[in-house]
Amino acid sequence: MKIDKEKLSELVAEKSGLEPESVAGQLDELVERIRKTAEKGKALEVKGFGLFYLNEKGDLAFDPSEDFATEVNYKYAGMEPVELRRSGKKEPEQALPADKSEKVTGKPAEETPDKETRDKAKRPGAGRDSGPKKTAAAESAKREPAAAGKSRRKKSGKKKERDTIMTLVITVVTIILLATVLMIVMERPGEEPPQQIVETPAEEPSAPVGTEPVDVPDSDAESARDDEPEPAPGVDPGSEPEDIVLQDPEVTERDVENSFGLHGTAESLDETHYSIILHSMQSRDRAAAAVDELRDEGYRAVLSQTVHEEHGTMWRVGVGQFQSISDALQAVPELPSAYRENHFIGRIQ
Amino acid sequence: MDKEFVKALRETIREQVIRKNSIEIDGLGLFEPVHEEQREEKTADGKVVMMPPRDRVEFKPVKPKKG
Q1: For an interface test with B, which of A6, A15, A33 has the most B Cβ atoms less than 10 Å from its Cβ?
Q2: Which ipTM did the prediction report?
Q3: Across the interface, do A69 and B49 touch by the CB < 8 Å criterion?
Q4: In chain B, what residues touch A79 (CB-CB under 8 Å)?
Q5: Hey, is the C-beta of A89 within 8 angstroms of any chain B C-beta?
Q6: What is the pLDDT along chain A (349 residues), one digit of tens a residue?
Q7: What is the 3-state secondary structure (H, E, C) of A257-322?
């Protein structure tokens, strides 16, 4: 469906509570300002939305801001490129023998020394530890005293051997334990959100206070350029973007500490926010039961309703309340393991 | 220009793009939702990676009327 300017004005008026005529007027004003700024060879940044500028062809171009792009792409937020195996031709050459091929996933280093040490432990210990053998040695000592002396010497030698083997076993077990701990630790960073999202710049601290749109000082303009990896080709490098700065209401700022996070009590907030959606169900009762269960576990569980094109009304069970998708993604590693790979970030009104 | 207006405009455009609706603003251009399927890509160091699917917004400007 295409939304035209008239419909857009209606929707904006509905959302902002402003008069539709006023909205239409301000929209015209914004369009004119974007055009004039671009024609001057400058870029105009609408905070939280994007940058308008003239590209090298002389056409008006728009680069969405990182926040806006992330919000539009919320369904796939957090998904990262997955490395694929190279062509199958080389694999058989590199593959291990049939009996070991299953261990390619990282265990061979543990398995091989383990087996060896087990074998070593068995070999020298086999003739000593069992009771009957000891008796047999004693009997032979009784019969042949000289031989008994030899056997004692052999025993002390074997003791040393056994100590060495024990040390080896302990060392190998320690190495295996350390390797396992390392593997667990290494896996965690992989679950973190992509750097692009983590580095989302804080807007509020740099935004000047005021109800009128304000031009941002030079330093902010520079940081705005940093957000855009490819600077606008049609823009004069010396020019600075004119910014329209937005500030969220102070209420949200004050509520942040107590109202957001993965754990705690879900609160009804005035502003829109995000939650990590774990379930989406058609049955409200089942969804409510899931919410209760999560609340019992200390999570800030949220029940919300959405209308799906195919399935009709769906009830979403989410945990946590977050101000941004980045915040939500940072909380994902704290989820129970079953949900870490099976969730999506959703906006809750 | 009202702060509330710019905020509401930004949110409205975002919501409409998420709902796969295009927004055409006279004198400015068209904001259009674009979905990219997952695809294989070869990186500079020869690795083959599967890029995840992506939703993004594309902007097509309108040429200002001359005259």
Answers
A1: A15
A2: 0.89
A3: no
A4: 52-53
A5: no
A6: 889 888 999 999 998 898 888 899 999 999 999 988 988 888 898 888 899 998 888 889 999 998 889 888 888 887 888 888 655 444 444 444 444 433 333 333 344 444 444 444 444 444 444 444 444 444 444 444 444 444 455 555 666 677 888 888 999 999 999 998 888 888 765 444 443 333 333 333 333 333 333 333 333 333 333 443 444 444 444 445 555 544 443 333 344 456 788 888 877 765 567 888 888 888 888 889 988 888 888 888 888 887 776 777 888 888 888 877 878 888 888 888 778 777 887 777 5
A7: HHHCECECCCCCCCCCEEEEEEEEECCHHHHHHHHHHHHHCCECEEEEEEEECCCEEEEEEEEEEE
Find, in chain A, the residue whose alpha carbon is nearest to that of B63: A59
Beta bridge partners of B58: B32
Q: To probe the interface with B, which of A16, A39, A203, A244 has the most B CB atoms within 10 Å?
A: A16
B43: its two tokens: 């990186």
Determine contact: A207 vs chain B, CB below 8 A. Answer: no
A336 token code pair: 């129970």
Distance in Å, alpha carbon of A202 to nearest chain B alpha carbon = 17
Closest residue to B50, CB basis, from A30, A74, A82: A82
> And the tokens for B54?
């992506």
Let me know: does B33 contact B17? Beta carbons within 8 Å. yes
Contact indicator for A201, A45 with CB cutoff of 8 Å: no
B67–chain A nearest CA distance, Å: 16
The Cα–Cα gap between A190 and A152 comes to 57
